[in-house]
């Protein structure tokens, strides 16, 4: 039984508003996507990575990453879920349907070894799989379109969904295909699995595993990376 990683990296980073897609911005002297790759490939259980890149990507080839494990490139799709599905189709050419796949955003370079290891260890014998998450700490409000509060949402069992999200190759591929076909909202792998009737398991990770979305996140990410270096 093998473990593979998929990195969706075909986004344009609209909210970041930088000249180049955010995954190619540098933090601590290294492109964000390379930090992300380093972290996944450093785990002894991870056999290799498939990266989904935009067809217009002109940056990847200049990074020339050298790893002793296979890093395969595929073309991304219109939305994140299409990018992930393309990568799963590539994996299916040589991997087993029962193999584990860890899908991790290129824009989350601060994934710690301990969180990754905890996810893998916790789900190793799980029938379904699951994802890293962080319990919600703020009071949550539901509003109408005019920003007026309708009610306060019970925070008790609410989590922020993070990545990696770890599922078996066959079931995940089918779940994503079904969800896309049914025009479901699939913003992560877990939502596709939920739509297919599974109950993914949440594994508590650290809040430092942020997704770099806006410019101010770069400062935070730099801080977390620096903390992990020391
Ligand atoms: N992604 C992808 N294919 C897409 C869209 C997004 O592979 N069609 C990837 C992004 O590159 C990123 C991850 O999915 O690593 C999470 O998406 P997000 O943070 O939304 O990145 P962008 O879509 O690039 O940013 P924005 O939504 O601000 O444009
Ligand atoms: Mg996006």
TrEMBL record:
Organism domain of life: Bacteria
Record site: Positions MEP for the nucleophilic attack: 155, 211
A Pfam family reported for this protein in Swiss-Prot or TrEMBL: IspD
Pathway the protein takes part in: Isoprenoid biosynthesis; isopentenyl diphosphate biosynthesis via DXP pathway; isopentenyl diphosphate from 1-deoxy-D-xylulose 5-phosphate: step 2/6
E.C. number(s) listed in UniProt: 2.7.7.60
Annotated positions for site Transition state stabilizer: 15, 22
Keyword Cell membrane among record annotations: no
Recorded catalytic activity of this chain's protein: 2-C-methyl-D-erythritol 4-phosphate + CTP + H(+) = 4-CDP-2-C-methyl-D-erythritol + diphosphate
Keyword presence, DNA repair: no
SUPFAM superfamilies noted in UniProt: Nucleotide-diphospho-sugar transferases (SSF53448)
Record keywords: Isoprene biosynthesis, Nucleotidyltransferase, Transferase
A single BP term in Gene Ontology: isopentenyl diphosphate biosynthetic process, methylerythritol 4-phosphate pathway
InterPro entries: IspD, IspD/TarI, IspD/TarI_cytidylyltransf_bact, ISPD_synthase_CS, Nucleotide-diphossugar_trans
Function of the molecule: Catalyzes the formation of 4-diphosphocytidyl-2-C-methyl-D-erythritol from CTP and 2-C-methyl-D-erythritol 4-phosphate (MEP).
Protein family according to the UniProt entry: Belongs to the IspD/TarI cytidylyltransferase family. IspD subfamily.
Protein name: 2-C-methyl-D-erythritol 4-phosphate cytidylyltransferase
Organism: Thiohalophilus thiocyanatoxydans
Phylogenetic lineage: Bacteria, Pseudomonadati, Pseudomonadota, Gammaproteobacteria, Thiohalomonadales
